[in-house]
Design brief:
The chain has about 325 residues and is mainly α. Helices cover about 75% and strands about 0% of the residues. It contains 16 helices and no strands. It is globular and about 85 Å long. It starts with a helix and ends in a 5-residue tail after the last helix. The relative contact order is 0.14.
Length: about 325
């Protein structure tokens, strides 16, 4: 197990390097000047040229190498080793200013939010998206596994038909429709929860349920199929022949093996949910990371695009690693 974890962690820099290269090539090829989009007006030619050189936007390879060194921490180490960081701190102190704070993994300035760095934007929005995504995945897992077990216990029954109908609704209905209906019923008519905004715990309930329903629908289908296959196995017939209660057969013997496809699905699904859903954040006015990413793409904010994508890719790799560990814990035969 330890060897698997170390091997996957060793692959992380290579995966992030490939993701960084592909993302930069695609973002760089988008037409338009990101400085004009950020400023909202066309600056004078000499000012535009100076700003392009300042941000290394005048050359693809110059930007590629400089950003890679900054985001990977190589430049931080070089500055500390050469004394450049100490020189900047001394200069700031001589001017009566606080020494500039520089993170180890520096994603650079934002071209759209001129007073904020990408690290500050991600640092303020990522916890919101992670909290919302984690709550949504907990709800989705509970609802999906429960509905799948109920449907598999009595295939073709009314409970199975209801769970199937709810799964179809959860998959087919867009998030903005589900969110709007929940807002109308539980926020406007019943006034149980706030209409929008970010407040805990009340402001988390409706957006988490909205975000969880599509995931819950897939989990319910995966659980139902896995349970039906497991219930037809020989060891289940043996357990029933021993006189074990049906509840024990379902939850202790069949469910453990039926959860293997669900565990596999939870890795990328959790990463997708925790990095933010733009539609849900828009409907409920939640300051998560999804809206920043969409705005960055629209304004060709290269620094913010790359920062968000690298954070998403890192979370995806780490969550898939956690899924592999759980997979081997549930089924030791895969170790």
């Amino acid at each position: 197990m330890l060897a698997v974890i170390l091997r996957r962690l060793a692959q992380l820099p290579l995966i992030l390097g490939a993701v960084y290269t592909v993302t930069l090539v695609l973002a760089w090829g988008v037409p338009g000047n990101p400085l004009e989009r950020a400023e909202g007006r066309r600056p004078p030619p000499e000012v535009a040229d100076a700003m392009l050189r300042q941000y290394n936007l005048d050359s693809f390879w110059s930007f590629y190498t400089s950003y890679l060194a900054r985001a990977s921490g190589v430049r931080y180490v070089q500055d500390e080793f050469s004394g450049a960081a100490a020189a900047r701190a001394a200069e700031a102190t001589s001017r009566g200013l606080p020494p500039p704070a520089r993170p180890f993994f520096d994603f650079g300035p934002s071209l759209q939010y001129r007073d904020l760095t990408v690290n500050e934007i991600i640092g303020s929005s990522l916890p919101v998206s992670v909290t919302l995504g984690a709550a949504a995945m907990i709800i989705a897992t509970v609802l999906g596994v429960g509905a799948g077990v109920i449907g598999a216990a009595r295939p073709g029954s009314i409970a199975d038909s209801v769970s199937l109908a709810l799964a179809v609704i959860g998959i087919s209905q867009p998030a903005f429709i589900i969110g709007s209906v929940l807002q109308l019923v539980f926020a406007v008519w019943l006034a149980w929860f706030p209409v929008g905004g970010w407040s805990l715990p009340g402001g988390l309930v409706l957006p988490a349920i909205t975000l969880s329903l599509p995931f819950a629908a897939y989990i319910a289908r995966l659980t139902r199929v896995g349970m039906i296959d497991a219930l037809g196995a020989d060891y289940i017939r043996t357990a029933r022949a021993k006189g074990l209660p049906e509840r024990t057969v379902l939850l202790k013997h069949a469910l453990k093996n039926a959860l293997l496809p669900v565990v596999t699905y939870l890795g990328p699904a959790s990463a997708m949910a925790m990095t933010g859903s733009f539609v849900v954040e828009r409907v409920f006015s939640i300051p998560g990371m999804g809206q920043h990413f969409v705005n960055a793409v629209q304004n060709k904010d290269l620094f913010l695009i790359l920062g968000v994508v690298l954070v998403y890719a890192t979370m995806l790799v780490l969550l898939n690693l956690a899924v592999d560990v759980m997979y081997r814990w549930i089924d030791p035969r895969t170790a």
